[in-house]
Amino acid sequence: MTALDSIYQVRNGRRTKRISSYDRSGGNKDSVAIPAGETAEIANIGGAGVIRHIWMTINCADRMIRRNAVLRMYWDGESEPSVESPIGDFFGQGWGENYNFASLPLAAAPHKGQALNCYFPMPFGDGAVITLTNESEEPIESFYYYIDYEEHDAMPEDAGRFHAQWRRELTEADSADGENEGLELVPQQPNQSDAGNYVFADIRGKGHLVGINYYVDNPSPMWYGEGDDMWMIDGEPWPGSLHGTGTEDFFNTAWCPKEIYMHPYFGCARVNGETGFLGRTHVYRFLLEDPVYFEKSLRASIEHGHNNALTLDLVTVAYWYQLEPHQPFPELPDKEGRQNKPIINLHDIHYWRHEYRKAFGGGTTLWGNEWRSKREEP
């Protein structure tokens, strides 16, 4: 059954409404300003209903405003947010950048991803509040938005509330084997635990996970994607109910992709333009047809390289529905803790070669592949 299958049905007890930034004077200044350091209440809705669509766009001198402005959503009078994420990452825009992104529940539309859209339905039984906090040192000169929602007479007791959480970790390379992914510097060891994995969801309660945006910044040209996804449902031990075979496999692609591809449910919205897999890549997977259900808890994680061998800057936003109350999120890193790692540039790569020459005795005609014959020595 699709949305179009029931679109002809005339329903009772629903009223369509919108909160927007339109000019209340009737003029054409259809935006609000958010001074540096301040929080704006974008929506405050009473009663029961469902938010059906959110559209937003920002004008700010800060080029990192999409990482420096934080979006929060609260349902039913709760004091802890059910949604907490930098605004760009939530809508599928990593690293404070803007680029086109198309999926079924989220999209960043032309011009160059400037229009942020969300179609995840967000039910509430007794009120909804949406805020945006400008943690930049620059004012948001103009912030435009639509919050399209339905008023309902009541909300069913089994209606899960929408949640989204931003996480980040600079992962550690294996201290014994080093960054050893596919090059077989030393034989890689098996991983029979999820203890060292990057955790993108750690949830308590009853619900189902429906998606993830996954932003990886790789300081090496080495392939980053041999990590298996692992899902421990309701406290079960490893290997869990769902165990994957590789990062690109979980994201429904194959064989180390490096090209833009956007399906409604999965894809690569941004790929690095550097040597190998050096730099920034954004992949996504929405489990709309195959959500991961849990009764008591969910620990969802992924290896950062096989046996967690790689140093990566990993950022994720996980999306799920659950019955309240939810476990409060860990404190969101401050603005400084959300900034990008420096871009590895050609000078850095040349210094790698300089160190390579030193390691091979400072030869004057070293080409760069001498390590191959040295590895084959008895």
TrEMBL record:
InterPro entries with a match to the protein in the record: DUF2961
The name this protein goes by in its record: DUF2961 domain-containing protein
Organism: Paenibacillus sacheonensis
